[in-house]
Amino acid sequence: MKKTGKLWVIGGTGDSVDAVKHIVKHSFPCIVTVTTPTASDLYPTLSNLSIQIGKLDKKEIQQLCTQETVKGIIDASHPFAINISQQVIEFAQTENIPYLRYERPSLKINSQAIYLDSFEHLLEGNYLENKRVLLTVGCQALSRFKSCHEKLVLYARILPKLESLKMALNAGFSESKIIALRPPITLELERSLWQQWQIDLVVTKASGKQGGEDIKLTVAKELGIPLIVIKRPLIQYPKQTEQMSDIIEFCYQCFQGVNHV
After folding, report:
1. NCBIfam families, from UniProt (predicted)?
2. The domain 113-230 is classified under which CATH number: 3.30.420.100, 3.40.630.30, 3.30.360.10, 3.40.50.1980?
């Protein structure tokens, strides 16, 4: 089967790396988009794989799909990266390009955790008052807590990137309240950090096992520390899967001209 055009993988996560490796193993030409140079280093160097770095707006999405003759889109972005997913879904439906969402498996509801629908619900409630709180929610969300520093002790764990550090500092976190670590975080290290900072409460996102949610649940149970989990945003994906095998089947269908939008 002659493969003209490319598959577009929206990347930047460990999930997308796995997806890309499976796709190129089956000899499909592929372009993956990531937002940072650091994320691009996660992918293998192969002749049938190209990488584009930078955030995309609607016009740039159109240009990418036209220039690369995109036959299908595999959205393997982070579960909380809703803006790119929503834009691509709208574009794919308008242009009749097959779209598949790879959604990393969710963990089952755990009685050890408190599950909230959004950061707004967290901040509107009385969950954080007079607590020593560890935030493992990503640097993008830290600005939401800027007004909270006078009321409680806040710590933030971020990725070891200059951009992330700047965002944490701008959100009011002092250097002594920031730790920069790249996942995965081991159970022993997670436990030690909570103990060292005498944490009373941890806030995380429902990022699944890939995001270390399972380890946080274990440590929370061991230490008797409440864990608040912000649920994933609700997006109506046209088609989604948790199976890598479905991605490969989707790739074959894209190059056979089967419409899966």
Report:
1. precor6x_red, PRK08057.1-4
2. 3.40.50.1980
